[in-house]
Write a structure and sequence with these properties.
alpha+beta, six-stranded mixed beta sheet, four-stranded mixed beta sheet
Length: about 425
């Protein structure tokens, strides 16, 4: 038992779990950052890797993998008894019903947790900012998604996604290294593709984190010295030497460092890029909401932690607004939040704040109520039908509610006194 829990009453601090397609963030409510960030997969004895978010898994296979995964969360990482605590699950917008129902069944039946609250992850990232309105751009591992939230209400039709994320950037780095990467061996230079072939993902991720950044739009480089090799390959970055495990040094060219990220802005072959996704999402919002949303853009996710990401995205948006496709949008001045939290854990931090508020106790599905009613008790954020309000009680007739957890939290008296005012936030 952590020392800070002594003398704080009988109810234990809640567990917060944010399950992503590649990484899962876990920790306790009331903390500023997760205790651990772990891979969202299990490694079996034969070294087979099984991702728990794989949609090809059957219900039985998924249940087995989740039991192993959740057991590791409680007894290997958090070192706590699951029977003593409620759980907040920050769920993916595109998560299947099979996954959420199986996860709830595992938590209640196998680990006997006290209660579970499932809430969409992206809107939670607004809670640390203290604002109920924002346009959220989540640059994840496999894809990038955009959602607009206005006064705590999710504008469902504005949710868009494109398969451009960290993995696409890593593949671009691999391709460029295979084409032009060199390794210094003694006094001579050899091709990286001949020595290493395809690099491991862990090596590519390290190269990305250590050397890469988002440069200016190629069209903004007016100096002929930077554009003589072609507008798409122009760069100002210098070459860097990256040490490999065998003692040799891989030469990472300035072109790779600065221009490998272009894959995120060039699009997926169907005129869809991160920048077009933002503007298309704004177009799907009511006209009277667009200016305010465009002035409150929040970029989150591990893929956005590259230096210069916000500046480059703003350049792309400004250039696209002159295109006929978005000429009628008129979003006003584009402004980006500069959060004081790590971007890859913003949703988890919002869940940790929400989990520490007693005002939302009726948002949890209790163990007794689930055992009595089954998976039908799980509230669905995307359903227009009224949700169960008093699901923490196992008897009686529950009342109904139709608002979202984020709106409930922002309207509570606790949030107005504990969260920073919007005027204190940094916008650029």
């Amino acid at each position: 038992m952590p020392l800070y829990e002594l003398g704080l009453g009988s109810e234990k601090i809640h567990v917060i779990i944010d399950i992503g397609s590649y990484h899962t963030k876990i920790g306790f409510a009331g903390e500023a950052s997760p205790r651990h960030i772990i891979p969202s997969y299990n490694v079996k004895r034969n070294n087979e890797v099984v991702n728990i978010c794989d949609p090809k898994l059957s219900k039985a296979e998924l249940a087995d993998e989740l039991i192993t995964f959740v057991h590791a969360i409680y007894f290997r990482y958090l070192l706590t008894n699951p029977k003593d605590r409620k759980v907040v699950i920050c769920e993916n917008f595109l998560q299947t019903e099979l996954f959420r129902e199986t996860l709830a069944e595992v938590l209640f039946k196998q680990f006997s947790v006290v209660g579970v609250m499932m809430t969409p992850a992206l809107p939670l990232s607004l809670i640390p900012l203290g604002t109920p309105t924002g346009l959220i751009v989540n640059v994840g591992y496999h894809d990038t998604s955009v959602i607009c939230v206005y006064e705590g209400m999710i504008i469902l039709q504005s949710y868009l996604t494109v398969e451009l994320g960290t993995h696409a950037h890593l593949m671009a780095i691999q391709r460029m290294i295979s084409e032009s990467g060199t390794v210094k061996v003694g006094s001579e230079m050899k091709k990286a593709s001949e020595l290493y072939g395809e690099l491991d993902l862990s090596v590519l991720e390290d190269i990305r984190a250590r050397t890469c950044f988002c440069g200016e739009r190629p069209a903004e480089l007016k100096d002929p010295a930077f554009t003589q090799s072609g507008v798409n390959t122009a760069h100002r970055a210098s070459d860097m030497s990256y040490p490999m495990s065998d003692g040799y040094h891989l030469l990472v060219s300035g072109k790779i460092r600065e221009r490998s990220v272009e894959v995120l802005y060039d699009g997926d072959g169907e005129d869809n890029s991160i920048a077009t996704l933002v503007l298309d999402s704004l177009l799907k919002c009511p006209i009277d909401c667009r200016v305010e949303l465009a002035g409150r853009i929040l970029v989150i996710g591990g893929g956005s932690m590259l230096a210069g990401f916000d500046h480059r995205l703003k350049q792309e948006l400004t250039a696209l607004l002159e295109h006929s496709r978005f000429s009628k949008l008129s979003p006003g001045k584009l402004k980006f939040y500069k959060p004081n939290y790590f971007r890859n854990t913003m949703s988890w931090t919002g869940g940790a704040i929400m989990g520490s508020v007693e005002h939302l106790h009726d948002r949890y599905v209790s163990r007794d109520f689930y055992n009595a009613k089954g998976s039908a008790t799980l509230p669905n954020w995307s359903s227009l039908a009224p949700q169960l309000k008093d699901s923490y009680q196992s008897t009686g007739t529950p009342t109904r509610r139709s608002s979202t957890p984020l709106r409930d939290f922002m309207s509570s008296p606790i949030s107005s006194s504990t969260l920073p005012p919007i005027s204190n936030l940094s916008l650029s």
